[in-house]
Every structure is written in C-alpha cells, then in structure tokens.
Amino acid sequence: MSVVGVLLAAGAGRRMGRPKALMHDPDGTSWLLRSVATLDRGGCDQVTVVLGAGADEAEAMLAAVPVDVILAPDWASGMAASLRAGLGFLREGDAAVVSLVDLPDVGPEVVRRLIDSGASPSALARATYDRAPGHPVLLGRQHWAGVLASATGDRGARDYLATHEHQLVECGDLATGVDVDSLV
C-alpha cells in the first residue's frame, strides 16, 4: 500500500503575524520542517507540501528535503484551495494522510496509528483526541474526487467526512491535536 503525506502549509497566519509555513517554536524548531518529518517518519512513502503565503521563503527552507512542493494559487480563499491543490497534484498513492502545518504536538506516532488503522484505496479515517475530531485524516484514493467536490472555503474535508462513514482513530494518548492557530 502506498501512502502519500499531504501537508497543508499555505495559510497566511494573519493572527500570528506571518505565514504558517515560516513559523518557528520558541526553541527555533521550524513548524514546516517538523511537519514534513512527522509525515515521513510516520510512514508516508512520499510527502507533498502545499504552499501559498510566504511560498518563496518556505520553498527555500525545503530545498534539501526530498518532498514535492506545489503552490495553491488561490490559497487565500481557504483550506479547501490547499486541499484541492494537494490532492489534485497526486498521481500515485493508494491513500493520502492530510495534515496541517500548525499541529505542534502531533508526531510520527499519530500518523503511524492512522496508517495502521487500515490504509487502502477505500480508507476513510480521522484522528481524534479524547473523542474530539482533529487532524490528520486518512483519505483513500476512492474518496479523493468526493472530497475535492465538497471542499469549500476553510472546510476542507469536513463536509465529506460528515456525510460518509469513517473510522475514528483515537490518538489522545499520543497528542492533544491542538491547532496552534486556534489558540491565537
């Protein structure tokens, strides 16, 4: 089974004062590089990074990292634009693990658990944290067209998941899954 990691890192981070792909922890850890490593070490066979705001600087940070980098030209319209760009770019893979750049405590163990829950072309699963839905999500290839058709604004795959049976993969013992942007 081939699993591709799709990292959505296009957001402007307006509340944070700079693009999310260019953010760092107080200790200097790059959110972008940490998120790529999380997908890679979690078991993704390849990683695609979707950029938007700050794309030139973010792409330079990724120059030595073996990832596919794409630009979501309409990134400012919301997460759905990034998701459409990322999934639309994929030519290979039986499933995709879609994650966000602003999830600081979501590590490789969460990605591995999600993949191990049953990665396949028909897979549809979502990480949960103490039963609260979060990211990343596992989307089998058979669902990509439906996810793309339903994604609008900042809703990404949310509407598709709301109307399709999917597996909830509890990861609250591994992370909080808190989106840093939601804390600002």
Describe this structure in words.
The model has no long low-confidence stretch (mean pLDDT 93). The chain has helices at 31-41, 55-61, 79-89, 108-116, 141-150, 158-163; strands at residues 3-9, 46-51, 68-71, 95-100, 124-129, 132-140, 167-170. It is built from 6 helices and 7 strands. The N and C termini lie far apart (38 Å). Strands 3-2-1-4-6-5-7 form a 7-stranded mixed sheet, sandwiched between helices. With 184 residues, it is α/β, with parallel strands linked by helices.
Determine the mean pLDDT: 93
Identify low-pLDDT runs: none
Pattern of helices and strands: EHEHEHEHEEHHE
- Briefly note the CATH topology name: Spore Coat Polysaccharide Biosynthesis Protein SpsA, Chain A
> Oligomeric state of the chains?
single chain
Main β-sheet, in a few words?
7 strands, mixed
Number of distinct helices:
6
Q: What's the CATH H-level homologous superfamily? A: Spore Coat Polysaccharide Biosynthesis Protein SpsA, Chain A
Structural class: alpha/beta
| Proportion in β-strands | 15-25%
Distance between the termini: 38 Å
Radius of gyration, taken over Cα atoms and rounded to an integer in Å: 15 Å
- From the 3D coordinates, which CATH architecture would you assign? Alpha-Beta Complex
Extended strand count: 7
CATH class: Alpha Beta
Give the overall shape, derived from the CA principal axes. globular
Helix content: 25-40%
Overall number of domains: 1
Strand order of the largest sheet: 3-2-1-4-6-5-7
